[in-house]
């Protein structure tokens, strides 16, 4: 009975990944269609400068999307990613201003972000709280810590050494380091999620936690480490932002979780767990970036932009809910 349950779980995971591949193809078609339409609507859209700006804008967020996607696959969610990104910036920046070299300060900021993930993982796996309420509390607490550290005042970090600034501002053969780091993170975790045995447990846990548990998978450990991974990648993104902008603002990242979750869900990650791909999530954030750039070039009010993004998220969640109900039926 247990083997049969696991077999059913594996079959569902496989079918959802197949559905994800179809969704990825659909997203590529939508993105290309929007690009073609915008090429007629605005002469500034199909320019190297605009595409570079779009790539830079979603590359760092894309690193956070990778962690969020894996967490959604396991059946969790993290509303604190924007706060953790800000926390990593603020802590690293504060340590630098206190005399710590930027590389060591950044490492401490990333490790501290990982500890936040450990704390959330503890409350989820040991105390028994769900990811939503745990990460909601963490979002508020961590944002408060950012305000306490900075006293509500942005930190100016223009004295960062050029070697460190190069991470966020430098290029290699004309390609920004930010984009290269983003591509490397995506490639690594996409490969692991598709091929590594350890990451298959993420799909099995998200598809049917009880069946996975009865089959010998330590589901709490899987959920714990995936939560830590998401927070750690948020910390990495925070350090890159600090290097790119040369500043650390305590209000940075407010609302970032909306873009991150929307991108992952649009890309095929299910809020009920068990499905999703890194490529799909990246296509999701690429779509949102194209939409944002298009709205800006068309002089659409920023208030309408937020509403449109919200409608896109609602549509994606509705489609996911419909497909999940149809699959259960």
UniProtKB/TrEMBL annotation:
<comment type="function">
    <text>Part of the ABC transporter complex LsrABCD involved in autoinducer 2 (AI-2) import. Probably responsible for the translocation of the substrate across the membrane.</text>
</comment>
<feature type="transmembrane region" description="Helical">
    <location>
        <begin position="25"/>
        <end position="45"/>
    </location>
</feature>
<feature type="transmembrane region" description="Helical">
    <location>
        <begin position="106"/>
        <end position="129"/>
    </location>
</feature>
<keyword id="KW-0997">Cell inner membrane</keyword>
<dbReference type="Pfam" id="PF02653">
    <property type="entry name" value="BPD_transp_2"/>
</dbReference>
<feature type="transmembrane region" description="Helical">
    <location>
        <begin position="136"/>
        <end position="160"/>
    </location>
</feature>
<keyword id="KW-0813">Transport</keyword>
<feature type="transmembrane region" description="Helical">
    <location>
        <begin position="224"/>
        <end position="242"/>
    </location>
</feature>
<keyword id="KW-0472">Membrane</keyword>
<dbReference type="InterPro" id="IPR001851">
    <property type="entry name" value="ABC_transp_permease"/>
</dbReference>
<feature type="transmembrane region" description="Helical">
    <location>
        <begin position="278"/>
        <end position="297"/>
    </location>
</feature>
<keyword id="KW-0812">Transmembrane</keyword>
<feature type="transmembrane region" description="Helical">
    <location>
        <begin position="51"/>
        <end position="74"/>
    </location>
</feature>
<keyword id="KW-1133">Transmembrane helix</keyword>
<comment type="subunit">
    <text>The complex is composed of two ATP-binding proteins (LsrA), two transmembrane proteins (LsrC and LsrD) and a solute-binding protein (LsrB).</text>
</comment>
<keyword id="KW-1003">Cell membrane</keyword>
<feature type="transmembrane region" description="Helical">
    <location>
        <begin position="81"/>
        <end position="100"/>
    </location>
</feature>
<protein>
    <recommendedName>
        <fullName>Autoinducer 2 import system permease protein LsrD</fullName>
    </recommendedName>
</protein>
<feature type="transmembrane region" description="Helical">
    <location>
        <begin position="172"/>
        <end position="193"/>
    </location>
</feature>
């Amino acid at each position: 009975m247990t083997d049969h349950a696991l077999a059913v779980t594996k079959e569902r995971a496989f079918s959802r990944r197949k559905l994800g591949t179809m969704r990825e193809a659909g997203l590529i078609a939508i993105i290309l269609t929007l690009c073609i339409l915008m090429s007629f609507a605005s002469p500034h859209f199909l320019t190297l400068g605009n595409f570079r700006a779009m790539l830079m804008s979603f590359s760092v967020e894309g690193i956070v999307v990778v962690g969020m996607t894996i967490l959604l696959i396991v059946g969790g969610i993290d509303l604190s990613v924007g706060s953790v990104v800000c926390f990593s910036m603020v802590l690293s920046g504060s340590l630098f201003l206190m005399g710590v070299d930027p590389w060591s300060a950044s490492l401490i900021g990333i490790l501290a972000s990982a500890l936040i993930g450990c704390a959330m993982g503890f409350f989820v796996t040991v105390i028994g709280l769900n990811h939503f309420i745990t990460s909601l509390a963490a979002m508020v607490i961590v944002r408060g810590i950012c305000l306490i550290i900075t006293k509500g005042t942005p930190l100016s970090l223009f004295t960062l050494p050029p070697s460190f600034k190069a991470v966020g501002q430098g290029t290699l053969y004309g390609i920004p380091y930010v984009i290269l780091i983003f591509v490397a993170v995506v490639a690594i975790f996409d490969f692991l999620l598709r091929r590594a045995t350890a990451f298959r447990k993420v799909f099995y846990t998200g598809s049917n936690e009880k069946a996975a548990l009865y089959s010998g998978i330590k589901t709490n450990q899987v959920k714990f480490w995936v939560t830590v991974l998401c927070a750690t990648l948020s910390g990495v993104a925070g350090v890159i932002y600090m290097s790119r902008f040369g500043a650390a603002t305590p209000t940075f990242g407010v609302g970032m979780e909306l873009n991150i979750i929307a991108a992952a869900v649009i890309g095929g990650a299910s809020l009920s767990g068990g499905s999703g791909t890194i490529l799909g999530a990246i296509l999701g954030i690429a779509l949102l970036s194209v939409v944002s750039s298009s709205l800006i070039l068309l002089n659409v009010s920023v208030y309408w932009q937020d509403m449109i993004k919200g409608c896109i998220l609602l549509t994606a969640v509705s489609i996911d809910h419909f497909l999940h109900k149809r699959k259960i039926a």
